Structures are given as structure tokens and as C-alpha cells.
Fold these 2 entries.
Entry 1:
Amino acid sequence: MEAAILSSLKPIPLPPSISQRKRLPLLSLALCYLNDEERITCILVSKLFRYAVYLSAHDILNRSFSGKRLSRLICSLPSRNLTPKMTNLWPYLRLRQKEVRRSKKAYARGWVAQYFRETGSPATRPMTEKLWTNPDCEEQCSVVQRFIQTRLCFALSFHGMGSASGRWVSSTVVDAQEVLPNEIWSITVATSKPEDKTGDQEMMHYVLYQTCEVIGHPPPDSLADGASLMETGSGCIPLRADWSEYIARRLLPATRHLCLPLLEHVRGTNTDDFEGGAAKGWLKRLRSQGKEGKEKLVVAERYMLGCVVGNSVSGAYQSAARMALEFSGLDNIRDNERKGERQSAPEINLFLPERHNVESVHFTSPRGPLHPAIAVVQTAGRQDGSFVLRENGVLIGEDEQVPEIWMKLLGCTANGMKAS
């Protein structure tokens, strides 16, 4: 959609006389503070006003939608013999405004906003106003909302509905940047403390794109002088060596082709019937299901990444074999074998227990369509399907039963259908 609009941008017709053009910058800047109806009226005043109204789109974009996306657009104009001061940017402005309205409307209808309304939480500003505009990437707002959902899911699992006052939930996301496409993002969160007069405290998290689960933090600036994390008192855990190595290799063009994509690092025990944690027969059937098949695969990938053994993502580094043994209860490994695990170069090991191998994903039940935020995942370890959130793959209900807390937040029935 954006590419089509960018290719259709044209010069503003009927420019004013050369003697009047020196008034355009100030006039267009003033017009950007009017509403649409007032600007339509100004078009009828004169050629100068008409041109300034068209030009005001550039000023509105600079004021409300500044970022890498706008910079890329401006840089691409000379290749088509256009300049920002001669181009009608209103179609592009309308597109960006529509994006913001759509994102805010979806958030207002979602369960996160419902949670804040139910609990009366002061966290009415989950992200800065700028992030709603997707300033640097079209996915920024959706990734931030996924991160907020995942964080709130963890808070609910620990504290229940009364966790809204916690530090996790009351913070504001101030930035989100893509580190590796469709794999890893960085999320910067600001937390204010009433007793701290120095201002908001910011912390950057590296998260998985599919689930927005935190995998670590970059070393704080205070560590440059050799201080340890314990000495800083920051409480943050730096990015583990295997993740650092993976990111570094994927970012370098010379070594990028040598690294497997993130999802290909998912390891299981049953490789005969499952490929990367998903049933091979089901993956074949998905190819004939079009858009819905792709959406089901995304939910399956999010669920699998969310169900890998904890040490796969954070905590102490372990090999896939070690995690499989510990998960099976066979943790009596000799000390020399444990030391031998770290002798080779660190490699990401995402171990998925066999009971979480995905056999199929469903958006409907025998009773009818499921709630738009819910999917049913059928796994090898459960006879009945499990309810998960489509957005991040978090498990919210087992044995075909949605808990009461999620029924209230999502507005669904116990069997996962939308409440009437």
C-alpha cells in the first residue's frame, strides 16, 4: 500500500508567481496548525494559499511523523525529479494518519486496554505518542503492543488482576528498533519513580520478534570502566554469549549466510514426524490454505518459541542435549561433561519438549469461530487442545477451558468463543 502511494506522488500544480513564493514557508507552516475544513476554505483564497495548503502536508509530516520512514521518502524524491517543496505529500500523510487511527482503535478494543480499564491502573500511556506513528518501521507499533501484551501476561501469571501497579506494567515504551529482521528487536522502556527526582530511568531489552520475550540487556554505560553488573546495582542481565555471537554473525554480510535462521535452531526429540517442532503432515496441508495457513503457521511458531525450555532463551547456557536430559529428570551429569559443553563456540540451542510439538492450529471449534484473539493449538502431549493468544503464543487455557480471568479480559466464553 505504501509503495503504491509513494510511486503515485506528483508535483503540486499551478505554483504562485515567483515574487510570492518567498511567503510560502511561513504560510504553509501556519496552515499546518489548522484543521482540514479550515484548510479547504483557504484553498479558495488565492493561488498562493492553495499552494501553501498543499505544501503544509510536508510540515505536518515533519511535526507529527518524523523518523526514518519519512527521511527515506524525502531522500527518494530526487530520483523521480521531485523535491519536498514541490510535491503533493497529502496522499502519504493520509496513509500515515490512517495507520495511527487503525492502531489506536485496535488497541482500544483489545484486552490490554480492557485490563487497564478494569483495574483502574494509572498506566494509561503504554507507549509514547511517537511510536503510534511507526516513525522508523511499519511494524514498530505492532511489536511494541506485542511486548506490552507479553509483559502483562507475565505479570498476570505472577500476581493476577491486582498486578497493575507493578513496575513492569506502569512503565512506558519509548523506542523500538529492529536488530535482525523478523527475529530480534530492541525495546527501550522508561520507568518513573516518585521518589527519584532525576527523571525517568530507561532500560533497553533485546526481545524475540515472535513472542517479545526478553533475551537479555546490553551492558549499561557504567560498565565501560570495568565495573561489574553487581556493582552498578542495575539488576539487569547482559545478553548471553550465544545470543551476542548469533546477532554479530547475522549482522555481518560475510558470515550471514553461515548462520541458520532463528526458527531453524528449534530442536526436539522426535525428528521423524516433526520438523522444527511442527508436524510435517500438517505443514504440507498449510500450503493449500492460503492466507489462513500462513496465519496458523505464525501462531505455531510463536507458541513453540514460547514453550522452549527456559535455558534456551536466558539463564545459564546449556546444550540441547543437556536440556533434554534435565527435562527428562536425568540430570546426574558428570562435572567434566558439563565443563565440556562450553569448550566449543557458543551456539543457540532452542530445545522444545516433545509434549509441546505442534500437531495443528485451529481458529474455529466444533461450535463455531473462536474469539479473534484466541487460537487452539493441538500438541503431541495433550489429548485436548490448548488455548493460546494469537499475538504472542502465550498459553492461557488447557483442556479446552478458558480461565475466568481471561474470559473477563477477552470477552469470551469458557470454550473460547466470542461472548455475545
Entry 2:
Amino acid sequence: MRTGHLVPCIIEPLPSCAVWAGIFTGIDAAQGAPLSVRTWGFYTGALWSYHALVCPMEAIHGRRSCLHNAASGFILGYIGVSRGMLGVPFVNPYTLYSMRNPALLGGAIYGALGGTLAAVGGKPM
């Protein structure tokens, strides 16, 4: 396990997380949501948490894999949907809330998004 990789891996994504959080906050504001630092902080924290979950998996396995991104997306999606902090994209709300545990579907969709985006970005399986 390469532990020297962890600190840079956790600190490096902070600037890009802040920039993308600003973009997502701007999109929210364009859709009518109030512009707030709290929203920007939520997006920054969520994006950074995603990266922080991928880092140890890469350090333990010694290689990059899109499966790490899928697992991180599933974990954060499940937690976010179960706590009511995230919605579930691409699913009809009537279908979603008629399910016994909508957080599982939310985790599966966020995991699939994370894994797909990593694969498109060039990470191997």
C-alpha cells in the first residue's frame, strides 16, 4: 500500500472541486434557487468526498480503476438519498417513492454515473 500517495491525492482535487461547485451553484441560481455559500459548500464537500473515497481504494490496490469511482458514487449516492440531501436523476418520482428503499436505486444510479464518467475519462476497469 502506497501511503505517500494519499496526502497529495486528497489535497490535489480541492481547487477543481471549488471551481465545479461554483459552476453547479451557478446552474442552481439560473434555475431559480437562491445563490448561497451554503449551496457552494455542499457541492464542494460532496465533490471532495467523492475524491477522498477514491484515493484510499487506489492506494490499497496500487492502480486506478473505474470500479473505485463506481463504488464511491454508490456510497455517496446511497447516503445522500437516504438522508434526503440528494434527488435521484433519470427516475420518475412516483416510481421512486413507491419503492421500499429508494436509496438503493439512488446509489446504483450515482455509482453508474461515477463509473461511466471514469471509464469515459480513460480509467481502466
